[in-house]
From TrEMBL:
Gene3D superfamilies: Immunoglobulins
Protein name (database record): Fibronectin type-III domain-containing protein
Stretches assigned to the Fibronectin type-III domain: 31-119
Species annotation: Bizionia arctica
PROSITE patterns in the record: FN3 (PS50853), PROKAR_LIPOPROTEIN (PS51257)
Domain of life where this protein originates: Bacteria
Length: 413
């Protein structure tokens, strides 16, 4: 009996071994290797990985941190893919798996992460400032997009002690063109922005600030156009509004005193009066001589923002009117006149036919008529009276420090 049982067991063992020999063992599908991301733009990217002989893959992608299964999935019959309609200035994760057969797929390789470029600045007057892509996501931080840059002026225009941030954005692949010490030739679709604000406490900027308006000038088909964006009460965005309005401001100055300002936001027509020369709208501030300081022009050259200029020393320098160490009284006064008065008091300016005064810094003194009009200049800067005080637009008060400079200069003539 034992021999019979042993024989049956032996037969069963051989039969089982024979069945195993007939099975086909399928190797695990290998994961894709060496995934790279190329040709990244603000809304697209190319993904490629090693060609391991497979003809089918699944790629899944989404904003960084997404869970597999919740992203966008693509089935691909090659070892590359092009992604489109991405969001600018965003981090994305990509996963790829190989499909060796319907029942044999690899594990996902990933995440492979990449960051899209900043979205293009939009050279249009859209309803909200945020729509223009001039600044990064937290708009009220006023952090410029990677496609825009801040610039400063050696001497600035007085606007009721408000602070200003100036931003310039050139279209992709373009530069400004150097001609002389004045304005460069700006390419079409250039966007220039100037944001006006007050710190709540001039002695402690960490206490925050109040953003009031962002003035925009855009060059379209060779013609500059103006628009104004007013910041909302929550300081989250600014809305296109070309009408005049008054914003009450209260802040603590450097002496700790409370200053109240009824800040007037100008209308579009008011802006045109100052920005018009022979009925052509132009920027006011960014003449090269007004920018040539603090290595700004050198940075423009190095970053290829401007062409036809290799050395900043080729450009003259408009003095800083507050710098009594490096510049004479006359140089400082003439610089103040240039920035605060010359855009109107010039041939073709809004006061060009009403006054013979010419305040451009490069105008020879004998042709400025400053000497001849000393009393009138002094009077109209010495107080504030709407419609009489200079400048006519853009301020609601006199500028004591500026007046002191000009009075001292006039007294030497």
């Amino acid at each position: 009996m034992k021999k019979i049982i042993y024989l049956v067991a032996l037969i069963f063992t051989f039969t089982s071994c024979s069945d195993n020999d007939d099975e086909v063992i399928v190797a695990q599908c290998d994961q894709p290797q060496n995934i790279t991301v190329n040709n990244i733009t603000f809304d697209s990217a190319s993904i490629i990985w090693d060609n391991d002989g497979n003809t089918s893959y699944t790629l899944e992608y989404g904003l960084s941190g997404f869970s597999i299964g919740s992203g966008t999935s693509i089935d691909i019959n090659s070892n590359s893919a092009s992604l489109s309609n991405l969001s600018g200035n965003s981090i994305y994760d990509v996963y790829v798996k190989a499909n060796c057969s319907a029942s044999n797929m690899s594990l996902y390789t990933g995440p492979i992460s990449f960051t899209t470029a900043a979205p293009l600045v939009v050279p249009e007057f859209l309803p909200n400032l945020s729509d223009l892509n001039l600044f990064t996501e937290n708009l009220n931080d006023l952090t410029p997009s990677d496609r825009a840059f801040i610039y400063d002026l050696n001497t600035t225009l007085f606007t009721d002690y408000s602070h200003k941030q100036r931003v310039l954005a050139l279209p992709e692949g373009t530069t400004m063109e150097y001609v002389d010490d004045g304005f460069p030739v700006f390419p079409n679709n250039t966007v220039i922005a100037k944001t006006f604000y007050y710190f709540n406490n001039e002695r402690d900027e960490s206490e925050g600030r109040q953003l009031i308006e962002t003035r925009i000038i855009i060059k379209k088909n060779g013609v500059w156009e103006l628009g104004n964006y007013k910041w909302n009460a929550n300081q989250t965005d600014a809305v296109l509004d070309n009408t005049t309005s008054t914003v009450p401001i209260s802040y603590a100055n450097n002496n700790g005193a409370t200053v109240n300002v009824d800040y007037v936001i100008p209308s579009a027509q008011d802006c045109i009066e100052c920005h018009s020369s022979s009925n052509v709208i132009l920027p006011i501030g960014p003449k090269l001589r007004a920018i040539n300081g603090n290595n700004q022009l050198e940075e423009w050259i190095a970053n290829n923002y401007i062409s036809n200029l290799t050395d900043a020393s080729q450009v003259s320098i408009l003095p800083n009117w507050e710098d009594a160490v490096n510049y004479t009284l006359e140089e400082r006064a003439r610089a103040y006149f240039d920035m605060n008065c010359a855009h109107c008091h010039s041939a073709g300016g809004s006061c060009g036919d009403q006054s013979y005064l010419r305040f451009d810094y490069d105008t020879p003194f004998a042709d400025t008529y400053i000497l001849e009009d000393k009393p009138n200049i002094d009077f109209r800067m010495s107080m504030y009276y709407d419609g009489i005080s200079m400048p006519l637009i853009g301020t609601t008060m006199m500028h004591p420090e500026g007046y002191d400079l000009i009075r001292e200069y006039l007294n030497t003539l």
